[in-house]
Task: structure prediction
Amino acid sequence: DAGVIQSPRHEVTEMGQEVTLRCKPISGHNSLFWYRQTMMRGLELLIYFNNNVPIDDSGMPEDRFSAKMPNASFSTLKIQPSEPRDSAVYFCASSLARGGSKTDTQYFGPGTRLTVL
Amino acid sequence: AQSVTQPDIHITVSEGASLELRCNYSYGATPYLFWYVQSPGQGLQLLLKYFSGDTLVQGIKGFEAEFKRSQSSFNLRKPSVHWSDAAEYFCAVGPNFGNEKLTFGTGTRLTIIP
Result:
């Protein structure tokens, strides 16, 4: 079975440019999570969706960041305009929520390493 | 609010020696607990999880963890480490009532020496 798929694996861009990161969750999973990992701040949850609906976006750093999930098999995280401090590894994860406030194992993708010059 | 503490930032162990990585949590009810491993340049992989039942949980790659409610701990153990175990290890606790968020610890980096 294919795991969580993320693209691109590496992205180098210049400050001010728009960056779009993509994620395909595991088929059948109904929750999707976007994380950011840096040396300074560790692993931070940015936003998560359940059944394509954003549930908690309290971790989104500012208005430059936006995330969408137009269908159950695709999500994007967009940064516009990008800044050097956005340089990090961005992970997508998915899980099969069991309803209510239940949680279950999150399966992580390989990540996108973003460098903003 | 729930929290996870991994008190050891970096641990060095000789190959073949035993390993214990510490994880302490703060949570208002019976938690769901996870250990993930991250190899360099890779995503996080689940090692094991505790939801309920037997407090000693077996995972992949020969790892185990024990849930101790009285100590609010979920320490990860392995009787004999291999050079391939060198990685970063993360403990996580959930759910955050009302949603599925996991709270991750800051990680413990494991170095294996020959």
DSSP finds no helices and twelve strands in chain B. Chain B has a mean pLDDT of 92. The two ends of chain B are 41 Å apart (CA to CA).
